[in-house]
From TrEMBL:
Transmembrane segments: 63-84, 713-735
UniProt source species: Sarcophilus harrisii
Any Pfam family: ASC
One Gene Ontology cellular component: cytosol
Record-annotated disulphide pairs: C587-C602
Protein's name according to its UniProt entry: Epithelial sodium channel subunit alpha
Keywords assigned: Cell membrane, Cell projection, Cilium, Cytoplasm, Cytoplasmic vesicle, Disulfide bond, Flagellum, Ion channel, Ion transport, Membrane, Sodium, Sodium channel, Sodium transport, Transmembrane, Transmembrane helix, Transport
Family: Belongs to the amiloride-sensitive sodium channel (TC 1.A.6) family. SCNN1A subfamily.
Amino acid sequence: MKEEKLEHGGRHPEPGGPQKEEKEGLIEFYHSYRELFQFFCSNTTIHGAIRLVCSKHNRMKTAFWAVLWLCTFGMMYWQFGLLFGEYFSYPVSLNINLNSDKLVFPAVTVCTLNPYRYTKIQEDLGELDRITEQMLFDLYKYNSSRSLSNKPRLRRDISNQLPYPLVKIPYPQSFSHHRSGAAGVQENNPQVDKNDWTIGFILCNKNKSDCFYQTYSSGVDAVREWYRFHFINILARLDSQDLNEAALGNFIFACRFNQVSCNQEKYSQFHHPIYGNCYTFNGKNDSNLWMSSTPGINNGLSLTLRTERHDFIPLLSTVTGARVMVHGQDEPAFMDDGGFNLRPGVETSISMRKETLDRLGGNYGDCTKNGSNDVKVQNFYSSKYTQQVCVHSCFQENMIQKCGCAYMSYPKPDNVEFCDYKKHTEWGYCYYKLQDAFSSDSLGCFAKCRKPCLVTNYQLSAGYSRWPSATSQDWVFQMLSIQNNYTISSKSGVAKLNIFFKELNYKTNSESPSVSVALALIVELYLPVVPGMSTHKRHQEKRDIQCPQGKYPHTTNESICCLKCHKGTYLKANCGGPDLAPLCETCEAGTYTEIENYSESCQPCSVCRKEMGQILKKKCTVSSNTVCGCRENQYQQHQGENKGLFRCVNCNPCLNGTIQHPCQEKQDTVCVCNTDFFWYNHKCIHCNECVPEKNCRDSCPLTSVNPKEAGPVLMYLVIFLGFCCLSLIFIVLICHYPRWRSKLYVIGE
């Protein structure tokens, strides 16, 4: 008996010594390192380790395996370093997908290219126009027909009326002499070797300590920019609502989308200080956005525009036509940055292709989701974050901080005024300094404004054709003039625009991490290389198959097969060696195990459900579950797909029939109905109640008639026979009518 216990414990008593009974413990301790190495060499599956530490006689083999293991582990950790280095560099992969679906039509903004009708604002611009015409005469000897007097005035009469007069600047020989007269004056623009002078205006700070020339190589650009600078000052003093022309019909003669006319609910209007009245179609305020389900010129937006120029501001609006921009619904229209001009008398067709870019933020890229938290620039636009919105807001923010006023072309806070040199005397000097710093990125706006992670772009392609043609222009002009109550006499007064999707295929570029989880890659790629150290499921299944019936693989050392626990017990601790019994404990009350197992817990016992008529047949034990059943003359009717759930139902007594198969535990009685009875709804019913809905014709003879049906049939039969009798009597009377007629005459005589 002692020998069996000692063998079961895995140790042998020393010869000649007293034999003591050793109990098997939860943790086994060895008496020496030699015994520990013997156990390791006998049970390990790491083949290289066996040859490294368990080779007793061949030192060459031991040295060879030692060098091999050092090289292998060195290469493995080198690969670990490469993987971790690649992971923490956060590389990304670019995924390109080509999708095809119905597309939301983008927003389209069209501007008139004229800020205001000259007749409405001429009174406010009178002084500026007079001074500008005088300067044109002094500089270029141009005598304008709009001059207030035939005789030009001297420059000294007008130099004090408006700040920053337009002057000639000697260049290049005499420029040094000019700079000596004004200390601190610097050239702000590149020099052009065309004449010995350029044109521009001088800008100084408040105390005249710092000045510079804003010069232009083209006189046209210089006059237009100088006029624009003073025009913005005048607009800052006016109420834009008084001059606003929001009527769509004044600019757009016709509008159609998908061959359906546009209504006024499909556009919104805003005013641009330079480009005039602008109309946005299919913008964010539209409740139902336009959808394009078919590409082509006939399935897009078509506009007929009024482009006459006779009421333009002559010194400001030097271009005729219209300004157009395509953008997203929740993006402002930056007409300076992304717009293009339409030429009068031309039909311009713009085809679009949609492209979406989805970047990764965080450690993978320098982009922002919405710009609310990670961009330190206040958004002055009532729209979503874009890089252009941020850049323009950044410039306006610097204008407010450094110049004390807001630039007219950009939105502003409510508590800040637009710049006007009557209130802010040095704002021109401050503005052009900031503009130069902004262009060279000295303000840091482009560094502050991060790219949005999700960007939608529309790639545009343009085509042009003469419209209307020479043969059709007469009737086209006549129709447009009558329809819009406006006389059109030449091609310069009208233009046509078509915008449509070239195809419904759109490209989506999305970024994804190239290395998602480095540790998962290390475990999957490198640990299976070392034999016996893999944690992959297929190795566990393989070990489970290798263990014979009645045994299971050790949870921490899969090379050991332990005996399974008997039914009624569960696994408390694994075995201490191959083919040994684990530590098993008996199931507690209310739990059980029915088979040999190595489960770490017992299953709870079932409870019979009285509400379903179940009764207790056998109580639960540690080795068997509760057995529930039904009373006598009842069977188990299973509920749904759960075969363990059943309801007790009374067995069918087979009234008006005979029992073919008696009632069983899980099956009702099988009955055969007597003659003149049929089976319906688990019982035998007399054929008098047979109706077509009960499918009883096979069991009931055809002669049997339902009393409920006999009444109507008999009534119909009586009516038919009565009708036949009446018809027969009528025919007989008709046949004998001539005889009666002669007798009637005799009686009458």
